[in-house]
């Protein structure tokens, strides 16, 4: 194995272009008297030429138009498919069928089985990074990525923000974005965004355990004054409970479905647009919710979206189907008819294609034995050490919890039940057979408060 | 994989190889067939420009290039001069690979004349040419074509084995890169799903 496996990155690798101003910003965010416990280190990792490339990429993305719609495939599709079949082992092995519609779909299970088969032959591995998914649709995943890919997210966020009339302008000496989590275990750190003149980025956990004094949470947000706050419905619900007086210019909600009620509460409380962004680790920000259209307007012109039936055939126009993706901006993971597990209706709008009636991202909370609500992500973390291909967790109306495991993985039942019980602080766990071979909803609940705010 | 010419047509073409193409190639100051010129003409007819290094390789001036490689390149040029290719291989970059990689590998296994006179070698040359141009023989599926080529060609079997080893090494390198602490630390995104 490579000698670099266990070496910690240096700060020079984390922030290759860091200036004195950037260094001061890192100090401000980490050494403020109300700062949280920052449990991790990370950075933008962007080289100087990559920062320039990203600026150009942002300009390109923000003005790019969709060259496809529900009746017409994108002009770049054929060349993209050729490239994927030439470079990506998984597809090369199968050979390219004559018709795009005959290409076999893939899903999380395929990526989980061996992600290496989906990485193109022509990408270097020296600066590869990974993102772990803790999705709600089945298989925990480790996805390949690159600092430039991570940096490209901002181009799509800006595209989404521009629709709401917001142009992010925080730069040197200011905090650009604060990412909120609410988990017992959360990756937290501070960094700077080079394309925004080293505005600050802080990823923090609102769970009280990560703070010297829980009241510091509001103090810290007020002191840092982030221009944008990003989070998920669960962390935003917690944010509403804090006596924060700062008013960000926008909130970005990702990961789970944002209810109309919570969105309205957040918008009223903070006096800013609340953007519900449909995003996933495999593909990045895909769409942003538009009230007037009651649909998610797509954000990536280079991502072709289909809606498919169970056999991989496009559903008739106007009908709901499983969302499948082709294209994308992660050059370490080009997607080809990738089934997301989410469902919706593909429609055409004046701005480009959009997804109406999006289903599949409901947040699920579980009630612990001592009466606390915890996020399904905490349960994913609890079971992560076990090599489970898939599982389900269901909480019944009386609070009892059952864990569904594949029959071939029952050897892990005892260990899994112990871990799950610990996360739910002593709840008894019943093990059941997971017999369905198809996609399953991983986390479900019958408890009234289990589906979030 | 797109369909290419029929195997029968190509094998017939090989049977009809003119004796001139099997004459000793020009090499080290003697011989008859100027292979570089022949190949250059055939590639040009297929809208493909032969790069200088390839023409130098086939010039007969390099002692490291065997007479068998030159002779087989001439036979390959004859095969590619068939009109059948006009519908399938115009300007294909893989045409160059046939001369730079395939011809030396096949020439190391058998004399050029055997790819003309022996049925199984003829089939091997025709199938290899079709496959390396990213095509399948007319009337066969991709999997039938791949199976049959592997059964008639030792060169193909070795190529598949090497490719499989390379693929496994690459997959291992990806898994190791993903497991590095540096990869674990990830990089900044403005949202985290």
Distance between the termini of chain A: 47 Å
| Poorly predicted segments of chain A | none
Would you identify the regions of chain B where 5 or more consecutive residues have pLDDT less than 50?
none
- Fraction of residues in β-strands of chain B: under 5%
| Rg from alpha-carbon coordinates of chain A | 22 Å
* Spatial shape of chain B: globular
Which structural traits does this protein have?
heterodimer, A: 453 residues, 12 helices, B: mainly alpha, globular
Describe the structure.
The complex is a heterodimer of chains A (453) and B (193). Chain A is an alpha/beta fold and 453 residues long. Helix content of chain A is 26%, strand content 25%. Chain A contains 12 helices and 20 strands. In chain A, the strands form 4 sheets. A 12-stranded mixed β-sheet of chain A has the order 4-5-3-6-7-8-9-10-14-13-12-11, sandwiched between helices. A 4-stranded mixed β-sheet of chain A has the order 19-18-17-20, with helices on one face. A two-stranded antiparallel ribbon of chain A has the order 1-2. In chain A, α3 packs parallel to α7, α9 packs across α10 and α11 packs antiparallel against α12. The longest helix of chain A is centred in the middle third of the chain and has 17 residues. The model of chain A has no long low-confidence stretch (mean pLDDT 91). The longest helix of chain B is centred in the last third of the chain and has 26 residues. Chain B is built from 11 helices and no strands. The model of chain B has no long low-confidence stretch (mean pLDDT 94). By secondary structure, chain B is mainly α. In chain B, α6 runs antiparallel to α8, α8 crosses α9 and α9 packs across α10. Chain B starts with 6 loop residues before the first helix and ends in an 8-residue tail after the last helix. Chains A and B meet through β1, β2, α7, β3 and β8 of A and α10 and α11 of B.
């Amino acid at each position: 194995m490579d000698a670099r496996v266990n070496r910690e990155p240096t700060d020079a690798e984390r922030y290759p272009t860091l200036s004195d101003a950037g260094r001061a910003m890192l100090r401000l965010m980490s050494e403020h008297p109300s700062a949280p416990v920052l449990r991790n280190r990370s950075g933008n990792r962007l080289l100087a030429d990559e920062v320039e490339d990203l600026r150009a990429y942002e300009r390109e993305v923000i003005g790019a138009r969709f060259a496809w719609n529900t009746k017409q495939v994108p002009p770049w599709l054929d060349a993209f498919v050729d490239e994927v079949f030439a470079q990506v082992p998984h597809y090369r092995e199968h050979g390219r069928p004559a018709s795009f519609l005959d290409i076999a779909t893939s899903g999380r299970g395929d990526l989980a089985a061996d992600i290496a088969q989906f990485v193109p032959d022509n990408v270097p591995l020296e600066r590869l990074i990974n993102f772990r998914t803790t999705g709600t649709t089945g298989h925990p995943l480790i996805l390949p990525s690159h600092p430039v890919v991570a940096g490209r997210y901002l181009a799509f966020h800006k595209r989404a923000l521009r629709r709401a009339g917001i142009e992010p302008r925080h730069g040197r000496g200011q905090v650009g974005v604060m990412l909120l989590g609410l988990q017992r275990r959360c990756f937290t750190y501070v960094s700077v965004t080079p394309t925004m003149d080293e505005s600050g980025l802080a990823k923090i956990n609102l769970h009280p355990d990560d703070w010297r004094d829980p009241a510091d949470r509001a103090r810290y947000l007020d002191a840092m004054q982030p221009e944008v706050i990003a989070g998920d419905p669960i962390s935003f619900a917690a944010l509403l409970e804090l006596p924060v007086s700062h008013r960000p210019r926008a909130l970005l909600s990702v990961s789970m479905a944002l209810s109309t009620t919570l969105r309205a509460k957040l918008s009223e409380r903070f006096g800013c647009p609340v953007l519900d962004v449909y995003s996933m680790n495999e593909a990045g920000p895909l769409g942003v919710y538009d009230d007037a259209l009651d649909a998610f307007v797509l954000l990536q012109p280079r991502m072709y979206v289909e809606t498919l039936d169970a056999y991989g055939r496009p559903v008739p126009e106007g009908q709901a189907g499983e969302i499948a993706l082709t294209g994308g901006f992660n050059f370490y993971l080009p997607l080809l008819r990738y089934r997301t597990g989410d469902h919706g209706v593909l429609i055409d709008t004046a701005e480009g294609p959009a997804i109406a009636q999006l289903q599949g991202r409901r947040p699920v909370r579980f009630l612990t034995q001592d009466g606390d609500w915890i996020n399904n992500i905490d349960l994913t973390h609890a079971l992560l050490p076990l090599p489970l291909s898939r599982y389900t967790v269901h909480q019944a109306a009386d609070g009892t919890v059952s864990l569904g495991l594949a029959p071939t993985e029952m050897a892990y039942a005892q260990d899994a039940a112990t871990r799950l019980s610990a996360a739910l602080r002593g709840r008894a766990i019943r093990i059941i057979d997971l017999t369905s071979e198809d996609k399953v909803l991983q986390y479900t609940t019958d408890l009234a408060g289990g589906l979030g705010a | 994989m797109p369909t290419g010419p029929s195997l029968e047509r190509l094998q017939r073409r090989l049977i009809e190889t003119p004796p001139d193409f099997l004459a000793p190639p020009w090499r080290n100051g003697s011989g008859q067939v100027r292979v570089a010129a022949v190949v250059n003409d055939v590639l040009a007819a297929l809208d493909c420009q032969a790069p200088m290094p390839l023409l130098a390789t086939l010039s007969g001036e390099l002692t490291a290039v065997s007479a068998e490689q030159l002779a087989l390149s001439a036979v390959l040029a004859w095969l590619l001069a068939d009109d059948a290719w006009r519908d399938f291989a115009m300007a294909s970059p893989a045409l160059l690979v046939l001369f730079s990689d395939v011809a030396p590998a096949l020439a190391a296994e058998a004399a050029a004349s055997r790819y003309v006179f022996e049925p199984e070698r003829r089939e091997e040359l025709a199938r290899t040419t079709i496959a390396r141009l990213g095509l399948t023989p007319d009337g066969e599926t991709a999997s039938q074509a791949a199976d049959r080529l592997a059964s008639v060609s030792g060169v193909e079997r070795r190529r598949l084995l090497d490719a499989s080893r390379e693929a496994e090494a690459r997959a291992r390198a990806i898994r190791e890169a993903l497991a590095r602490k540096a990869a674990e630390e990830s990089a900044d995104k403005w949202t985290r799903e």
